[in-house]
Design a protein that fits this description.
It contains ten helices and no strands. The protein is mainly α. The longest helix has 70 residues.
Length: 308
Amino acid sequence: MNLPLFRTFLKLAMVAAPLALAAPSFAQQGTVAPQQPAVTQPTTSSSVTSAPTTQQQPADIAAGVSDSAAKPIKGVTTPLRELSPWSMFLSADIIVKAVMIGLAFASVVTWTIFIAKMIELSFAQRRLRGALARISESRSLAEAQMALGSKRNALSLLLAAAMREARLSAGISSDSGIKERAASSFAEIVRAEARRIRTGMAALATIGATSPFVGLFGTVWGIMNSFIGISKSQTTNLAVVAPGIAEALLATAFGLVAAIPAVIIYNHFARVMRNYLELVNRSSGAAGRLLSRDLDRTHVSATARAAE
């Protein structure tokens, strides 16, 4: 073996041995060195986490503001009111209430007159038609009164007036004068019967003509109060304005409810009364014919007695 080469190899081995022993320490240092950030990680992590917290504070504040804005504020919201007719009547102004009560009373009067007049006119027409049928075959006033009996109606009054005029005019030879006076009595009876049967019609006409204007007065008064309330509250929110306007319009509805039936009932009774007064005029004509027969019969009997 070459001695110089051996010596060279030995020197290299002596130099490489310390390096081999130092290699693990360098390896350990290499593994620890990357761990140094982990050692300082708490401080760095705290700094890292603290920084986002400071940056996230405006976002959290904005989120809280948006949540608070999304929630309704109890002091600002207006409670909903029940807009039923009864609740609107209770919350209306005293003048509007008085108008509504008056119109409701007028409506009650209208329907009361309707029921009463319907019963009265139905019975009056039935009685008068029956009386005319009973005296259709009568030959004199006396027979007609016997056919009617004690029943009191327009025809019985006409027959009584004819009998009275014939009795009071006894001994008077002028038939035209008797008939004229009897016709005057008949006209008075017909006018009295027309006045009696028209009882309540003036109330219907008044209610039908004035109720819409009375309701309109209540509406104007209520809307005026609503505008005053708007000026005081300084808001045009529909939830604030609508209840007062609805209460005011309810007065107009009351007026129409009272007026429309009154007008319809008035027109209906006007037709029915016209038919009834035609029956009364027929009764007047029947009484006049019976009186004329009695007068002619009296003259015939007087002429026969004079001839004898």
